[in-house]
Design brief:
Pfam families: TPR_12. This protein has helices spanning 13-24, 46-56, 68-79, 94-98, 135-146, 148-153, 155-164, 169-180, 187-200, 210-221, 225-235, 244-251, 255-267, 283-291, 302-324, 348-357, 359-371, 375-384, 386-392, 395-412, 415-431, 435-452, 455-471, 475-492, 495-512, 515-532, 535-551, 555-569, 575-592, 595-611, 616-635; strands at 2-6, 32-36, 85-89, 108-113, 126-129, 242-243, 272-275, 278-280. The chain is mostly helical.
Length: 636
């Protein structure tokens, strides 16, 4: 079932939808989903909205297809047997909504829009036009906010006041909040102020809703100057929501002062607190605030403010990446900046939490930087998000951002950065089995690196070409590329790069059946990673080493390698890597005929895979179930 609530801005569509969803929530046991489709100002593409919905339904990012049509098909499949309530707020068109409609008769979709979206009639939609409140209804809201006695004492003035609000709940709420915060102000004085402001109003908000502009102008005039400044600065933020830290950095304020001012704006309904210490603007309020967003009186224009915000996000993303990937060679100048030496994030978990929370803003920053010719910041952000990508594998977003980053690096004439981003893009293509595109990107990266003598870029491109060759089972080519990459890293004096490629060489040799040579490479890789303190890569090398020993029939050595991998990974906060090692323990035990040990390992791996929402949980479950049956039959 699809229900479309349409009406003018500020009429209360979103509030009505949320209240309705709350009342019917028990009828939809599989949950409620919410997506802000952006409205006319920043419309969200259907593909991006589908990714959000699929992630909310538990689909891991690396399993979400890059193609919008495939995402829509997966969404229909996932929702076919569920009972969900889905709220699509601020829709722009029927086409934007259509691919977000779930399958199955047990779901309901509520859509809000300023347009009628009549095209959804083909999808069986029910249409409801939300009219402005009547004077009587508006007076009820005003009474709830300022008190019955106060309204009754100035009945005629209260009528004039709510009439000036045009029946829009948003506007009545702002006026009511102003009066509630000024208990001695007469309602007649507030109404007179709005009448005067209506006469001189030049701002035309939302297609002629001058009453909205008058209310907002009066609310703005009543703010302290510092709060006015924050109101204007927040409106030019490139994303949909924000916290106090980015605005504090933009204005040079401390975060406490900024939080207090934001709380004041929230109390007056001029910003919406969407989460703990996270805020956004109603569309009409944002238009008004941006109209006033020239901050030259304090030496800061709206353009300057946005550039500072973009800089802040890029700098923070770099700081997070340094915590997540401290040993990876970097290209961007911010990695070497003095301010990065003071830790912004205390550990990897803090860094990942910030990246995930700000993910939509980070994507918006890349788009904004490209659209406003901040090319140097655009490509630096793309490099800085590598760690986030590796842990979430949101391929569609990554490919879109790297494409922008490559174009930005080209505009800057920075061939070293372009080569780095082309290899990052090629990595994603290879993981999606788009090997021709992966090879093309990395061959271009190799050409760029050779042209400027960038040996680090050359090593990266060679290694990625090896990945692509391995994916197409061209083992001799893969071996050659990895060996060349290893040699370049040796020349550069980069032991971690050498160790990574020795592990890859060992993996190829294992597949080619040259097990003794594979063991030499993998043992050397493991020892190097151990000495470097890279525990995750140490575990990976031990796993490959265990596989090589197992295939060579050296079961004791295989068990020792994998047991060491488990000892190390058990101390790491990495459920996915622990599950990988346990799955290998189960496979090796099963090959030896130790069914009970294999079953228990598979069960533990299943639990960990489920914790990170990895589909391998199903495979572990089926293997454990089969072994349980076999053990029961043996005991019987």
């Amino acid at each position: 079932m699809v229900v479309v609530l349409s009406g003018t801005g500020g009429v209360g569509k979103t509030a009505l939808a949320i209240r309705w969803l709350h009342e019917i929530s028990e009828e939809f046991p599989h949950g409620r989903l919410f997506v802000d489709l952006g409205g006319d100002s920043v419309p969200v593409p259907p593909g991006q909205a589908l990714a959000w919905l699929l992630e909310s339904l538990g689909v891991p990012g690396k399993q979400i297809p890059a193609d919008t049509g495939q995402r829509a098909a997966l969404f229909r499949s996932v929702t076919a047997d569920r009972q969900l309530a889905i709220f699509l707020d601020n829709a722009v068109s029927a086409a934007q909504v259509r691919s977000l409609l779930p399958a199955g008769p047990g779901n309901i979709v509520i859509v809000t829009s300023r347009s009628h979206l009549s095209g959804l009639a083909l999808d069986g939609a029910l249409f409801l036009e939300i009219a402005p409140m009547s004077t009587t209804e508006a007076l009820v809201v005003l009474r709830d906010m300022v008190g019955t006695a106060r309204v009754s004492a100035e009945r005629d003035a209260a009528h004039r006041l709510v009439d000036l609000c045009g029946g829009l709940p948003l506007v009545v709420s702002i006026v009511g909040a102003r009066l509630a915060s000024r208990p001695h102000r007469r309602i007649a004085d507030e109404a007179a102020t709005l009448v005067d402001r209506t006469r001189v109003l030049t701002l035309n908000v939302a297609g002629g809703e001058k009453s909205v502009g008058a209310i907002l102008a009066a609310a703005y005039a009543g703010l302290a100057e510092r709060t006015r400044l924050l109101y204007r600065v927040g409106a030019v933020h490139p994303g949909r929501e924000f916290g106090a830290p980015v605005l504090a950095a933009t204005l040079g304020w401390d975060e406490t002062r900024t939080s207090d001012a934001l709380a004041e704006l929230a109390d007056l309904n001029l910003v919406i607190e969407v989460d703990d210490q996270r805020y956004s603007y109603h569309d009409l309020v944002r238009v008004h605030a941006r109209h006033h967003a020239d901050m030259q009186t304090v030496g800061l224009t709206s353009v300057d403010a946005t550039v500072r915000m973009v800089n802040w996000y890029v700098t923070r993303a770099v700081a997070a990446d340094l915590v997540i990937h401290p040993l990876r060679p970097h290209v961007g100048p911010l990695y070497a900046a003095d301010h990065q030496r003071d830790a912004v994030f205390s550990n990897e978990q803090d860094a990942m939490f910030w990246l995930e929370r700000e993910r939509a803003n980070l994507r918006a920053v890349v788009d904004h930087a490209w659209e406003h010719a901040l090319y140097d910041l655009a490509w630096q952000m793309c490099e800085a998000l590598w760690g986030l990508f590796l842990r979430t594998r949101r391929y569609s977003d990554w490919i879109a951002m790297q494409t922008i980053g490559i174009a930005s690096a080209e505009r800057c004439g920075n061939q070293r950065a372009e080569a780095r981003l082309r290899s990052q893009l090629g990595f994603a293509y290879a993981k999606l089995s788009r090997y021709d595109e992966a090879v093309a990107e990395n061959m271009r990266a190799l050409e760029l690196a050779d042209a400027i003598g960038d040996n680090q870029g050359r090593a990266t491109a060679l290694s990625q070409l090896g990945r692509a060759a391995l994916g197409t089972q061209q083992l001799p080519d893969a071996l050659r590329y990895f060996q060349q990459a290893r040699d370049v890293h040796e020349e550069l004096g980069r032991p971690r790069g050498v160790a990574l490629n020795r592990r890859r060489i060992g993996n190829v040799l294992t597949r080619m059946g040259d097990l003794d040579a594979a063991v030499v490479e993998l043992r050397a890789s493991a020892d190097a990673m151990s000495s470097l303190g890279d525990q995750h890569q140490y575990v990976r090398s031990l796993q490959f080493l265990g596989t090589a020993h197992q295939l060579a029939g050296r079961h004791d050595l295989a068990d020792a390698a994998v047991q060491e991998a488990w000892t190390v990974v058990a101390e790491l906060d990495s459920p996915y890597y622990r599950a990988e090692v346990l799955a290998q323990v189960g496979e090796m035990a099963e090959q030896r005929g130790d069914r009970a040990i294999a079953r228990d390992a598979y069960r533990k791996a299943e639990e960990l895979y489920e914790l990170v929402e990895d589909p391998h949980a199903d495979l572990m479950r089926s293997r454990a179930d089969l072994l349980s049956e076999a053990c029961a039959q043996q005991q019987g």
